[in-house]
Amino acid sequence: MKIALTVGHSLLKNGCYTSADGKTYGGCNEYKWCKAFSKQLASALKKNGHKVKRIVCPEKKFTCSTQEKNYKLNLINRSNYNLVIELHLNAASPSGRGTEVLYKSPAGKRFAEKVQKQLSSVFQDRGTKERTDLYILNGSKPPAILIETFFCTNKNDYAKAKGKANRKKLAKLIADGI
Ligand SMILES: [Zn+2]
């Protein structure tokens, strides 16, 4: 398949991240983790025979998070991808934990279920969820899934995702699910 792999959020011109930051709870910055992880996931998907385009918003260029939408959807919809994967992390109070994959279309649901099953071997299974309010799911022409790999605000979740070796392991799980 030809896959667009997009990293949620961005780093704005003013130096602020548009993502959640769980560092004060012993977790991590959502955008930074997802950006690092996208490299391992792209490699794992390529290893499994897919063509992958990583899409990361330009850093320190945008003035607000709403600019992320057009940037990504333009790149996605001008090529003929078979699948869009967007990377995020969940955020809540420090006790919130686990993994979930979001989808909108029936085709997206099939991919979401396969990825959910794989990630649930590491994180608490929160199930797949149908969402109709997310631009990446609504605006992408190909089937799309949004992976909330774990909670960036949960110390124990982050312990299983910290560092390159853990990221590689999680990347292989997702790639094998796809
Ligand atoms: Zn997010």
Topology overview:
Layout: E1 2-7, H1 30-47, E2 51-55, H2 66-77, E3 83-90, E4 99-103, H3 106-119, E5 125-130, H4 135-139, E6 144-151, H5 155-159, H6 163-177
Parallel strand pairs: 1-2, 1-3, 3-6, 4-5
Antiparallel strand pairs: 4-6
Helix pairs in contact: 1-6, 3-6
The structure holds zinc ion.
Beta-strand share of residues: 15-25%
The spatial strand order of the largest sheet comes to: 2-1-3-6-4-5
| Poorly predicted tracts of residues | none
The average pLDDT value, as a whole number, equals 98
CATH topology: Aminopeptidase
Query: Which percent bin holds the helix content?
Result: 25-40%
Structural class: alpha/beta
The CATH architecture comes to 3-Layer(aba) Sandwich
Radius of gyration: 15 Å
**What ligands does this structure carry?**
zinc ion
What's the CATH C level?
A: Alpha Beta
Tell me the total number of β-strands.
Answer: 6
The domain count comes to 1
How many helices? The count is 6
**In CATH, what is the homologous superfamily?**
Zn-dependent exopeptidases
Order of helices and strands: EHEHEEHEHEHH
For the sheet with most strands, the description reads: 6 strands, mixed
> Which outline best applies?
globular
Task: Characterise this structure.
- It contains 6 helices and 6 strands; from the N terminus they run βαβαββαβαβαα.
- With 178 residues, it is α/β, with parallel strands linked by helices.
- Strands 2-1-3-6-4-5 form a 6-stranded mixed β-sheet, sandwiched between helices.
- Helix 1 packs across helix 6 and helix 3 packs across helix 6.
- The chain is globular and about 40 Å long.
- It binds zinc ion.
- Zinc ion binds next to loops.
